[in-house]
Amino acid sequence: MDVLAGCQAFVSVSEHGGFTQAAAAVKAPQSVVSRRVAALEKHLGETLFERTSRRVTLTQFGADLLPSAKRLVRLADDLLYDAERARRRPFRLAVPDTCGTANLARLEAQARSENVFLDLVPQPPTNRAELARSLAVRAALIAVPSDQSDWTVPLGLAGVAQPTGARIYLETLRPGRSRSGEPGRVVRVQPEDDVPHIRDRLTRVRDAVGMRPAQVAVAPTLTTALAEVLGSDDLLLCSSAQATELGLAWRPIGEVELARGYGVSAMAGTDAELLRTRLHPLIARCLGAAG
């Protein structure tokens, strides 16, 4: 016996003065309303209404129970309201600050279709991890090696000029291959990629092919790195999607495959599972992730 549904029908009939009027008010067939009231009467063991061909009136038993039935219906309405408000409570999520405004806006809008209301906090890698540790956010997308990641973003090199080959080989950037008297082109690394599993692999290849240490330079901001690239023939380490957004020509690196890896740091396992399942493809599109 669905006591709540029975009480809702009972209260509606009492307020509207009849089964037909109550059915119209709740947009349900009259037979459904009548059946629910009858089931409640059977469950309670007493008649709630005196039914005649002209009108429906409360019995004394019905009048005695009506206040309690109204309280139950009101509490149910309050529960539904509170549940909706809880669903709409912002989910504060730290994300890479390399994600463009348009991509972040699309992620936020698309998440709403999943009844998830994101409050996105763009931050560099170290800050995201700290926000998660300090519980300043519900969850964070943190930098991890690509073989341990939930999302993987392949990296390459991008510059102003269109490359001639399918890949850019770092060994072609060493000073001996540059024009006479020039120090060699520099690979600019933005803060998002200043993490050991990317930076260290890149510098090992740099040393192996004979580039100078200064030819791989970590910039304090993406804006600074991009300014250096736009004003020279230097190259930016970035993803293909990011290069397109910045108006640069991108190619993968010839000697090594580098990728950003992203995992989830969250206090609640259900929050982490939400990001890895229902929101996984939405986050992938925002990050420009492979697959």
TrEMBL record:
Q: Which residues form a coiled coil?
A: none
Q: In its keyword annotation, does this UniProt entry include Transcription?
A: yes
Q: Which residues form the HTH lysR-type domain?
A: 1-59
* InterPro entries in the cross-refs: LysR_HTH_N, WH-like_DNA-bd_sf, WH_DNA-bd_sf
Signal peptide segment: none
Give the UniProt entry's GO cellular component terms.
Answer: protein-DNA complex
Tell me which SUPFAM superfamilies the record gives.
Answer: Winged helix' DNA-binding domain (SSF46785)
Which GO terms of the molecular function aspect are on file?
DNA binding; DNA-binding transcription factor activity
- Keyword terms of this UniProt record: DNA-binding, Transcription, Transcription regulation
Q: Which family does the similarity line name?
A: Belongs to the LysR transcriptional regulatory family.
Name the UniProt record assigns to this protein: LysR family transcriptional regulator
From which organism does this entry originate?
Answer: Kineosporia babensis
